[in-house]
Amino acid sequence: MAQGNLRRSSDHLMEDREAGEYYRKLAESSGESNSQIEKNVAFIRELKEYWNKVHECEGFDIDGIHAPQGSNPLVRVDCKKVYRYPAFVDLYAELGLHHYNLLEGTNFQFSELIKYNMTCNCLSSY
């Protein structure tokens, strides 16, 4: 199943029934078995539930939210340990805080990045 075609924002995911019907039509035309179709529809449903939970907590404190196996979930990075590209990540954190200050009319100052969440992306070359 092409998991990359699902959009991550819960606002853009199809409703369960709509996604299931769409996938069933697509899978039936490719000759997939009914059991495989049902597994994939269940995966789509679980993935939608995962991203809805992430959306509800606005991406913060995701430790108790479990993604379905085989998906591309958010990964928690602890900044108190060694992490990759600290200057780059800190710059994005400062930019995000500046954006928040502009939207909310606040004047918070960046002092330290404790943790952040990221997705892992894979690149294939053929």
From TrEMBL:
It comes from the Eukaryota. PANTHER family: CYSTATIN/MONELLIN SUPERFAMILY PROTEIN, MALECTIN-LIKE DOMAIN-CONTAINING PROTEIN. This is Uncharacterized protein. It comes from Eruca vesicaria subsp. sativa.
